[in-house]
Amino acid sequence: METLRKFERVCEIVDQNGKSASCLIPILQAVQLEYRYLPEEILTFIATSLGIPPAKVFGVATFYHLFTLKSKGKYVIRVCNGTACHVKKSMDLHAALRTKLSLGERQDTTADMLFTLETVNCLGACGLAPAMVVNDEAYGQLTPNLATAIIDEIIKREAQDESDASRTA
Ligand code: FES
Prior knowledge:
- This protein has helices at residues 2-17, 24-35, 40-50, 54-63, 83-87, 90-100, 144-168; strands at 75-80, 115-120, 132-134, 137-139.
- The chain has a 4-stranded mixed beta sheet, with helices on one face.
- Strand 3 and strand 4 form a beta hairpin.
- By secondary structure, the protein is of the alpha+beta class.
- The two termini are 20 Å apart.
- Residues 80, 82-85, 122-126, 129, 131 line the site of FE2/S2 (inorganic) cluster (FES).
- FE2/S2 (inorganic) cluster is lined by residues 80, 82-85, 122-126, 129, 131.
């Protein structure tokens, strides 16, 4: 049922953008916005819908940095490691968050799919170094304690939402 709904949504996206190869990038952008990544089975489905080879769709999806084929958490934390942030010890934030989220050495997404931790080169907010963004929200002049407190706040909010949802169910 879940899978069926997933493909129905992709059909809508394809219909809204147009069934032609020239619409591939906007379609991939809309799909990624919906699922936070590009699932492989959906890329194949898009190729069939547009009548183009799956290799072309995979080629575009892997060429552009804005696309990801890896599933990400509900909250994507991007710690800046550009020069201004790096000299202000942004990697200490990264290490503190990694510990906070109990992420293993090669792991960047928590097992409950709530958080993904990444680094980026510059967020364009160098005056606020060291900085990070969580989804679209930017935070600056952070310390490891402030960064982990932001995560605690999100975890608390999520737990509250879940208990509200179970009370109304
Ligand atoms: S170097 Fe971090 S925001 Fe520019």
